[in-house]
What does this fold into?
Amino acid sequence: MPDTITITDDRTGKTVTVPITDGVFPASAVRELDPSLFIYDPAFMQTAACRSAITYLDGDAGILRYRGYPIEQLAEKSTYLEVAYLLLNGELPNPEQLATWSHDVTHHTFIHENMRKRFVDGFHYDAHPMGMLISAVSALGTFYNDAKDIDSKESRDKQILRLVAKMPTLASMCYRFSAGLPFVYPDNDISFPANFLQMMWKIGEYELDPRLERAMDVLFILHADHEQNCGTTAMRVVGSSHVDPYSSCAAAAAALYGPLHGGANEAVIRMLTEIGHVDNVPKFIEEVKSGKGSRLMGFGHRVYKNFDPRATIIKKTAYDVFEVTGTNPLLDIALKLEEVALADEYFISRKLYPNVDFYSGLIYQAMGFPVAMFTVLFAIPRTVGWLAHWQELLGDKDQKISRPRQWYAGEDARDYIDLSAR
Ligand code: ACO
It folds into this structure.
C-alpha cells in the first residue's frame, strides 16, 4: 500500500499526490492544487501545526511520554527539576548537569523588590491569584531588557532559567497578597517543591512532611507538558511573532486560566460539594445521563479515549497525601462517582474515564490550597513545557509567524451610507 495521498479538485480535474509520513501529509498539497483553496478546521481538530520532539501522546492507548520516557516512570523515579531539564534539553541530565541546573534554578528564585512592593501591592484586595500571576509574568519581563534578544542562545537560556525559577516565587506572592499575609522569601537550601511550599505556608516555624514535598513534586511532573494544548498553542502563536518569552508565557497562562482548560479541577470540587453525600451519587449520575444536569466534571478528554495515565498516578498520590492530611471528606463521593460511572453503559460507550483533574483538586484542597490557587499550581510546572515549545519553535526552520486564513462570511462590498440617511 503506497504511503501517499492523492487529492483531486473536482472543479478542475487537477490532481496532487503527496507522501503521508507518520500519519501526516503536508497542507502545501492543497496550495499546489489551488493557492486560493483553504481547509476549514475550527479548533485545529485535524491540523498538525508543528513537528515536535517533546511530548508523545496516544489517547487511544492512554500513553504519555516526555522525550520518550513514560510518565509513569518519571512520576515514580524522577524529580520536577530533572524533568524540566529533560523537556528543555531532550536528554536526562548526568549528575554534574543536574547539580549545575538545580544550583542555577535555586539561585534565580528571587524577584526584584519592586515587583512585590509596588506592582503586586497595587492589586485590589480580592484580586484572583491567577489574574495576578498572568500580569506578574508579563511585568517580570520589563526587568530584563536582554529578554528581547531572542536570537541569542545565551539570552534565551537565561530567560528560561529565570522563568522556571521565579514562577513559584510569583505564585506564592500572589497567594500571600490575596490572603493578606507577609511575603516569604525563597530559601535556597531546600528543594524546588519544598521552597514553594514554605513560601506558601510559612508563618513562624514551618515543618514540611517529606510525603507532601514528594506529592507536590509528582504533581509538578504530571503537569509539566501535554503537547499542543490550548496554553502551549498560545505560547507558540504569540512566540512566533518573536516577542520576548515573558510576554508569550503571560499569553499561555491566560489561556490556561479558562475553565475549559486549567480550571476543570475547580469545577470538580464544586460538583462534589454540590452532590454533598454518597447517597446522592446515583441521582446525580442519572441527571448527567439525561442531559438535564451538568456534565460529570473530571471525566472525559478530547484526546484520551481509554484512560488518562496521569489520573492513575494522581489517585495514588492522593492516598499518599491523605495519609498526612487526613482524608478529604469529598473523597468518598469521588470514589463512588468513579465506581458508578465506570460501570455505566453511558460512560463506557462514550469512552469517558477520569481525567487528570478528577483527583488533583482533592489533593490540592487537602494540602490547604484555596480553589482559586488551583490553576496557579498548574501554571508553575507548565511554564517549562511552554518554554520547551518556545525554544523548539525558534529553532524550527519550517516555522514562520502564525497567521491562519479565514473563511469570510460577511457582507459583500457595499457603499458607505451617510449618517443622515441611516
Ligand atoms: N460527562 C457526561 N457526558 C460527557 C462528558 C462528561 N464529563 N464528557 C463527554 N460527554 C459526552 C457528551 O455529552 C457526548 O455525548 P453524545 O455523543 O451523546 O452527545 C460525548 O460524551 C462526546 O463528548 P464531546 O463533548 O464531543 O467530547 P470532547 O472530546 O469534545 O470533550 C471534554 C472533551 C471537554 C474534556 C469533555 O469530556 C468534558 O466536558 N469533560 C468534563 C470537563 C473536564 O473534566 N475537563 C478537563 C479536561 S482535562 C484538562 O483539560 C487538563
About this structure: Residues 66-400 form a domain with the Citrate Synthase; domain 1 fold (CATH 1.10.580.10). The two ends are 64 Å apart (CA to CA). Residues 106 and 189 are 8 Å apart (CA to CA).
